[in-house]
Amino acid sequence: MLDTLDAAAVRRWCASGLAALQRHQGEIDDLNVYPVPDGDTGTNLVLTLTSAQQALAMDLDTVADGATTPHGHALRLMARGALLGARGNSGVILSQILRGFADALATTPTVGGPELAAALRAATSAAYAAVARPVEGTVLTVVSAAAGAAEQADSEQLPVVAREAAGAAAQALARTPEQLPALARAGVVDAGGRGLCLLLDALVEVITGESPERPAPAPTAARNVPPPATAARETGSPEYAYEVQFLLDAEPEAVGRMRDTLDALGDSLVVVGDEGTWQVHVHVNDVGAAIEAGVVAGRPYQISVTRFADQRPSAPAPVSDGRAAVVVAAGAGIAELLAGEGAVVVPGNPSTGELLEAVLGTGAAQVVVLPNDPDAQAVANQVAEEAHRAGVKVSVVPTRSPVQALAALAVRDPRRHFEDDVIAMAEAAGACRYAEVCHAGRDALTVAGPCRTGDVLALVEGEVHLIGTDLIDTCVALVDGMLGGGGEMVTLLVGADAPDGLTDAVCTHITRRWPFVEVQTYPGGQPRYPLLVGVE
């Protein structure tokens, strides 16, 4: 039994945690909140921690740098490796948990109970800071419970605090379906939280020499949780009459508070920049409140206010084009399309290191990244921070589908300033509604009702809207539903497994039912999704 956490124990923890994640990789992958056959949380966690172990292996002596203790040095190697190898939202959050843990213990001479509790609290803070809009019932809840229990243990003994933290994490994991309706509907616990519990149990085993007897969480009975009464509006709603833009000199902490204020005032919010100077854009009705938020945060200048009713197009002033676009995409056809728009294409589900290499490889001083997936977006945000340290300015346009990336790339204009170009791309992406069609991987209860394995699911903006048994009929109904809300152009990306006749059937229907709508069809080659749809 260990009284303190030394460098050798850190190495054993990393190896034991990776082995546990590998054993339960399939189980974690199956913890999907919707029955879409692309669950990869377990895979992403394994790949992320594999990179952490590789970083430790490249520094066998774990020699401290003079200010850092040997165990602190090992933890920082582990955290840095996890960051560069982070895949998906779960991998990024894990890397930040490890970073907070390492920062708290970097210069601590010995790690006892109080120090472990402080490290878990720092890990919790880092994890929450990594998520723009934290949601309870996720891995964030699990790590917070672990930190709270460690503090309440109030013990000098490392084994006592470690056991209390791991036990509380397991209890918090079991409660996640009560906090997140999507988990309750699917009858599962949070996948990322399950992975963290395995890592904490591995830490207990390293410290105490005993493996906690904790069976895998049993699936809960899916219950009929009603869908939310409201849904997030699309970017660019006509509800707001004014566009406000300004440059801002402010500290990052103040910018974060301002972002929250502006988010409550309007929509189409984009805040991009680096340490010190920021470009701010928002659509609001209360212009004074928006500018006041900037004054509270720092020094706003070059303030521009446009009333949409009076807006007239104007020719942008030409500027130098030392910039590039990097796009994440799965599918040979999609990659070819995006490359044809002048983007550097990175295969789907990249690690932080792989995406960073692509960004730096462009040789451009200003790079816009289009992730095309919520998990890849978390990786892209980390890449933006890493690239800044290398002197490259990276802005992430939060695209969730390749059809949004095509819309964003179509409005790129090298004559605009980089920040203005990013805003225009973000608005174009937000104005493109996206959907995808796939087959259910298992029986489940969705917001659209129960589905069976093999059913055809049509997801709009990530939510299951239609459930059918015939692929063509479901695709046609999906397009009708989307065009019923308005639209002038439909983009169809056909998947690798799409049957013959799917495209012709959908296009023929659109031409007959919606004669004034333009249709563009491309072979996307994407796996798992026979059809991706974009409506502009």
Automatic annotation (TrEMBL):
<dbReference type="Pfam" id="PF21645">
    <property type="entry name" value="FakA-like_M"/>
</dbReference>
<dbReference type="InterPro" id="IPR019986">
    <property type="entry name" value="YloV-like"/>
</dbReference>
<feature type="domain" description="DhaL">
    <location>
        <begin position="8"/>
        <end position="205"/>
    </location>
</feature>
<dbReference type="InterPro" id="IPR048394">
    <property type="entry name" value="FakA-like_M"/>
</dbReference>
<dbReference type="InterPro" id="IPR036117">
    <property type="entry name" value="DhaL_dom_sf"/>
</dbReference>
<dbReference type="InterPro" id="IPR033470">
    <property type="entry name" value="FakA-like_C"/>
</dbReference>
<dbReference type="InterPro" id="IPR050270">
    <property type="entry name" value="DegV_domain_contain"/>
</dbReference>
<protein>
    <submittedName>
        <fullName>DAK2 domain-containing protein</fullName>
    </submittedName>
</protein>
<feature type="region of interest" description="Disordered">
    <location>
        <begin position="211"/>
        <end position="235"/>
    </location>
</feature>
<dbReference type="Pfam" id="PF13684">
    <property type="entry name" value="FakA-like_C"/>
</dbReference>
<dbReference type="Pfam" id="PF02734">
    <property type="entry name" value="Dak2"/>
</dbReference>
<dbReference type="InterPro" id="IPR004007">
    <property type="entry name" value="DhaL_dom"/>
</dbReference>
